[in-house]
Amino acid sequence: MYLDAKGLVALWREALLAQKVLGGATKGYRNHPQLHRFRQQQQPLVAIAAYLHGVHREAEARGYQFDMSKIGECAGHQTMAVTSGQLEYELCHLKAKLRTRNVAAYQRIEPVKTPQAHPLFKVIHGPVEPWEVSAEKREL
38 near 22, Cβ under 8 Å? Predict the structure, then answer.
């Protein structure tokens, strides 16, 4: 819900690519850190499909027409845990991008301190995920 149009379209494309990676249908992009959260699930393809359904719902709410036939089956998938630290890190990262890319979108989300998670995720208290590649960690 916090993404601008460019970010939402990029997320859709990246998540579709992640679905292909998890299904073994492509050789590129296999080591992206965000894939770790889906690989940890009992059924990674079902998990990424559930994620894509949430992205599709957001796109529809905005009047976009993303092709739902590209999403795999996600029946019965449960929620996934995401740490509060990871969610806050991702919001901070998005704000930094929007500050230069889309000032109006940045101003809309700038006051947000505690972000809402994608419907697939259940927020638990915790730090930034160890698989996250951040500038702070690179400096350590």
Answer: yes
Structure tokens at 46: 């079902």
Residues of the chain by 3-state class (helix, strand, coil), percent to 5 = 55, 5, 40
Q: Is 122 helix (H, G, I), strand (E, B) or coil?
A: strand
DSSP state of 113: S
Distance, in Å, from the CA atom of 25 to the CA atom of 60, rounded to the nearest integer, reads 27
Query: Residue 41 in contact with residue 17, Cβ under 8 Å?
Result: no
Axis-axis angle for helices 5-22, 84-101 (nearest 10): 130
Q: In which residue are the tokens 């949430």 written?
A: 54
Output the six-digit token pair for 81.
Answer: 């845990």
Q: Model confidence over 61-98: pLDDT tens digits? A: 999 999 999 998 888 778 999 999 999 999 999 999 99
DSSP state of 117: P
Instruction: Give the pTM.
Output: 0.90
DSSP string, 58-86: HHHHTT----GGGS---TT---EEEEHHH
- Copy the structure tokens of residue 23: 């299904």
